[in-house]
Amino acid sequence: MMTTETLNVKGMSCAHCVQAVEGSVGKLEGVSNVTVHLDQGTVDIEYDKDITKHEDIVEEIDDQGYDVEE
After folding, report:
1. Of 23, 38, 60, 62, which is most buried by a Cβ count within 10 Å?
2. pTM of the complete model beyond 0.85
3. CA–CA distance, 15 with 59 (Å, rounded to integer)
4. Could you read off the pLDDT of 15-50 as tens digits, one per residue?
5. In which element (H, E) is residue 25 found?
6. In angstroms, rounded to a whole number, what is the distance separating the alpha carbons of residues 37 and 41?
7. In angstroms, rounded to a whole number, what is the distance separating the alpha carbons of residues 20 and 23?
8. For the CA atoms of 70, 45, 60, 11, what is the dihedral angle to 10 degrees?
9. By C-alpha distance, which of 14, 1, 10, 65 is closest to 43?
10. What parts of the sequence cross the membrane (predicted)?
């Protein structure tokens, strides 16, 4: 079942940040789309809840050095 979620992420400020988050989260199984909005400090993620958990996405963003506000 596909779901779309928007996360508030602190610490992203440049093109490298966009590549790091989109690249790492996009590699997770079940994730079909990742879009970073630097100006808003948000990340839109479309993923299959049956394959990938919300916690897996948050952990992946944390591993890249950014903080997800929940």
Report:
1. 60
2. yes
3. 21
4. 999 999 999 999 999 999 999 999 999 999 999 999
5. helix 15-26
6. 6
7. 5
8. -60
9. 10
10. none
Residues 6+ away with beta carbon under 8 Å from 54: 5
Residues contacting residue 61 through CB under 8 Å, at least 6 positions apart: 7, 9, 21, 24, 25, 43, 68
Round to whole Å and give the CA distance between 21 and 45.
11
d(Cα 65, Cα 68) in Å, to the nearest integer?
Answer: 10
Give tens-digit pLDDT for 1-18: 899 999 999 999 999 999
Instruction: Fill in the amino acid letter for 70.
Output: E
